[in-house]
Design brief:
By secondary structure, this protein is an alpha/beta fold. The chain contains ten helices and ten strands.
């Protein structure tokens, strides 16, 4: 798999990454042996941009990656995130204070068993702390050699501009898929491109929906957090499956799967998708989208089938 520039600050990553969150939290039962095998298989396939966060567990996903890939640290680009302070046994409010920035990075370095984090994100902006203060402290981590590059997650255009003026950002991570196209309309994608900030798309398969493997709520485990999302209600699943079936028809005409088509559509926009999976089977299918080039006519057909706002149900609860 090719490596490509992410942003304009010098970082290069595999053209498709791997979101490791579901290996530890939120998406049903965990199987550590399969998760470790999946992480190692990803590196074998060239999917070397591995994405995690302190919140996933908390801490457990970072530790899992250390166990799985510690011996192969030099082969991977490691991204993690911080926001909430999970010390003292619970998830506290977001804390973007410089003091917390410094505490959080030391925890992640320890849990990941590494001397440096390749890409360090602020997972969510703390509304009580000016973003300049948080990003200024993150920039100090780069100067100190603890972090190579920094980024934000789910930030708006104004926040991006203010943060980037404080210390150059390498990446913005936000949800982006054929079912979640808000960043095309709210100025986020445009601003990132203008500033030379790379865009990393989480949930690029609509939290698994665009794979076509979810046809009813019963397909999700009892402890799968997606059961609580409006887009995965029984009624909305039926409506959204109609879109997936039309995408599948386009994909079959090209000789690929619906998931591969959805990932190629994102890559066509200069975006680095990080589809999450905890099984080698789906990892290998997703990786098959790398290098898949879509014609202008194919892109137009995909856009016609899955335009902005096509998905029924909000992407988040509440």
């Amino acid at each position: 798999m090719r490596t490509i520039p992410l942003g304009s600050q010098g970082l290069r990553v595999s053209e498709q990454g791997l979101g490791a969150m579901g290996m530890s939290v939120w998406y049903g039962p965990r199987d550590e042996s399969e998760a470790i095998a999946t992480l190692r298989r990803a590196v074998d396939l060239g999917v070397t941009h591995i994405d995690t966060a302190e919140a996933y567990g908390p801490y457990e996903n970072e530790k899992l990656i250390a166990r799985a890939l510690g011996a192969r640290r030099g082969e991977i680009t490691l991204a993690t995130k911080f926001a909430r302070d999970f010390e003292d046994g619970g998830a506290q409010a977001h804390d973007g204070s410089p003091g917390h920035v410094r505490r959080a990075v030391e925890r992640s370095l320890r849990h990941l068993d590494t001397d440096v984090i390749d890409l360090y994100y602020l997972h969510r902006i703390d509304p009580a702390v000016p973003v300049e203060e948080t990003v200024g402290a993150m920039g100090e981590l780069v100067t100190a050699g603890k972090v190579r590059f920094i980024g934000l997650s789910e930030a708006g255009p104004d926040e991006l501009r203010r943060a980037h003026a404080t210390f150059p950002l390498t990446a913005l991570q936000s949800e982006y898929s054929l079912f979640s196209r808000d960043v095309e309309r709210n100025g986020v994608l445009e601003t990132a491109r203008e500033l030379g900030i790379g865009f990393v798309a989480f949930s690029p398969l609509g939290r698994g929906f665009l794979s076509g493997t979810i046809t009813r709520a019963a397909d999700l485990a009892e402890d799968d957090a997606r059961r609580g999302l409006p887009r995965f209600s029984e009624e909305n699943i039926v409506a959204n499956l109609r879109v997936v079936e039309r995408l599948r028809a386009l994909a079959e005409a090209r000789g690929v799967t619906a998931a591969q088509l959805a990932l190629a559509w994102l890559a066509d926009r200069g975006v680095v998708p990080i589809p999450g999976t905890k099984r080698r089977k789906w990892l290998e299918e997703n990786a098959g989208a790398a290098g898949l080039s879509l014609s202008a006519e194919e892109v137009a057909r995909v856009d016609e089938v899955s335009p902005y706002g096509v998905a029924e149900g909000a992407r988040e609860a509440g």
